[in-house]
Amino acid sequence: MNLDEVFGFDWDEANILKNWEKHKVKHTEAEEVFVNKPRVVFKDEKRSSTEVRQQILGLTNQKRKLSVIFTFRAGKVRVISARDMNRKERFLYEKKT
């Protein structure tokens, strides 16, 4: 599935709270990364062996650079984690965009 075929987001309340408490990322900010361009998406093979997870690097409406780990479930994006990009991710994002 690609991002242009997404029918919305499937949020887990615990993840909303976790992302806010741990990383100060609101779920609405994480959603903005999927809409705003440019964005970089790739498989995240090291984090899960039970489901296909992907990572997206992109910008919020306020130009905050976020890294979001997600999976697709029933045509929706299910965000697992959202945080500010680290130095390596910022470098990769700048290089790819």
Describe the structure.
- This is Toxin.
- Pfam families: BrnT_toxin.
- It comes from Candidatus Woykebacteria bacterium GWA1_44_8.
- The structure is a single chain.
- This protein is of the alpha+beta class.
- It has a single domain, classed as Ribonuclease toxin, BrnT, of type II toxin-antitoxin system (Nuclear Transport Factor 2, Chain: A), CATH 3.10.450.530.
- Helices cover 31% and strands 29% of the residues.
- It is built from three helices and four strands.
- The chain has helices at residues 13-23, 27-35, 87-96, and strands at residues 40-43, 54-59, 65-73, 76-84.
- The chain has a four-stranded antiparallel sheet.
- It is globular, with a radius of gyration of 12 Å.
- The mean pLDDT is 91.
Intertermini distance: 22 Å
How many DSSP H or I helices?
3
- The H-level CATH homologous superfamily, spelled out, is Ribonuclease toxin, BrnT, of type II toxin-antitoxin system
Return the structural class.
alpha+beta
Indicate how many domains the architecture comprises: 1
Strand proportion, as a percent range, falls in: 25-35%
What sequence of helices (H) and strands (E) makes up the elements? HHEEEEH
- Unreliable sequence segments: none
CATH topology-level name? Nuclear Transport Factor 2, Chain: A
Largest sheet: 4 strands, antiparallel
| Lateral strand order in the biggest sheet | 1-2-3-4
Please state the second-level CATH architecture.
Roll
- Overall shape: globular
Organism: Candidatus Woykebacteria bacterium GWA1_44_8
Pfam families: BrnT_toxin
Protein name: Toxin
InterPro entries: BrnT_sf (IPR038573), BrnT_toxin (IPR007460)
